[in-house]
Amino acid sequence: MMTCPNCEHQTDANLNFCMHCYQQTKCIKCKNTLVKGAPRCLHCGESLVGSGAQASTQNTVHLEEKSERKGENYSNYRRLTISANDDAIPGFANALSGSLGAVHQPQRTITAETRRQQALPVAQQDGAPTASEEAIEEAEEVHVPQVLAPTPELKQIGELFDRNSSGVIVSKEPDFKGKTQKEQQVRFTLLFAYAHEHLGGGGVSREIIYAAARARNIFDANLGRYMPTILREHFYEDSEGIYKLNRAGTESVKGYIAEIFDPEIPAGRSYWESSSKPPRPRSSIGKSDQKLVEEWLAIPSKFDGLDVRFITKTVDHVVFAIWLITRGLDVVKSVAPSVAFDYYKKKFETINIDYKQFGREISRETMRQLLEQTADRKYYPKQEADALVEGWLMERGITAPYREG
Description:
CATH topology of the largest domain: Arc Repressor Mutant, subunit A
Strand order of the largest sheet: 1-2
CATH class of the largest domain: Mainly Alpha
Number of helices: 14
Strand content: 5-15%
Helix content: 25-40%
Largest sheet: 2 strands, antiparallel
Number of domains: 4
Low-confidence stretches: 52-57, 97-120, 131-149, 275-283
Mean pLDDT: 78
Structural class: alpha+beta
Shape: elongated
C-alpha cells in the first residue's frame, strides 16, 4: 500500500491511479511517486496522463437554427456562440447533439442573399445593393448543422452516476440489468466510461475503471480477463493511453440505459449480495503449522494490544512479522513466510496487506539487506532488521524482554 499524494488515503501501490480519488499517483514511465500539484514527474519529466504539453487552442463556434422558411426569411431564429478550447469542444458537441454523429443530421442552408438581408438594417433591405452588400453576396453558401436537444441518455446517466464529496464520479445504482456477472461487469464498464466523459471527467484508463469497479464491489479477476476485449470492441485509445467510447460503445450504452429504466425488464444478477458476504477463511499452512501458530498466539507478550497501524509499508510489515516470531517471542530461529503471515494476521487483525503482497515483498532482492534466508526457505532477521524494529518499539515504550513471565 502507499499514501495517495492527492487525497492522502491508502491505495494499492501496484496501481498508477488512486483507488479513492482516481487521480494519478505514479509516473507511467518511471513508476516513481508523483508530487502533489506538480504538472509532471519530478524524476523523469514525463507529463501526467491527460495533461498536454501545450495549452489547447481556443475556439469560437457559432450555431444557428432557422425554421418555418417563408421565401428568403425564417419565422424562428436562434443563435448560440460557444468559446472553448480543443478539449472542451467534444463535450459541447455531445451535449448538444447526443453524439459526434451529429454531423450526419439534416442540414439547413443559409444563402448569400439571406445573409445579405440579415446584415442590413430594416430600412435598407429593399434598397439598391451597396459595396458591402456586394461583398456579402460573393460569399459561399454556409451549411449549419441542425442543433438538437440533449438526449434522454445524458439526462438519465445522471441518475445512475454522480460526483461524491471529493469530486470523484461514482455509481449510485448497483443493478445494470445484466443477466450474468460478466454482463453486469461489461455494462458497468461502458456506463461508467460514458458518465465519466459526460460528467466532466474526460476519458478513462484501465486503472480508473478498476478503481471504480472496486468501489462498486463488481471487480474480480475475471474483469481483468474481459477488459482487453471490452476495450477493443467498444473504445478507441488516444496517444496518451486514455480510452473513450467509440460509436459501437455509445450505441450499447443507449441500449443499456433504455433497459435499466424499463420496468418491464427484470432485475439483473444480484452480484452485490454475494460480494458482500465475507469469504470463508482459508489457511495456506498445514495442520501442524496451524497448531504452532495457535500455541504462539497463546503466549503472553508486550505486543498484546499493540496498534500496528503505524506500519504503512509492506516491507516493514514483512520485517516485523519475521522479527516478532524469531526475536520477540523467540520460539524459533527461523520461520516460513506463510507461517509468519498466518500468525501476524491473527495477532493483528488491522493489518492492511494480504498474503500475496507479503509473499511478493519477501521475495524481492532488496529484502536481502534485512532478512537472511535458510536452505529450507525460512527467514530470520539480520542486524539491520533488529535495529529497525527495536527503534520502532522504543518509540512506543516497549523494551526487552518481550515475553511476559
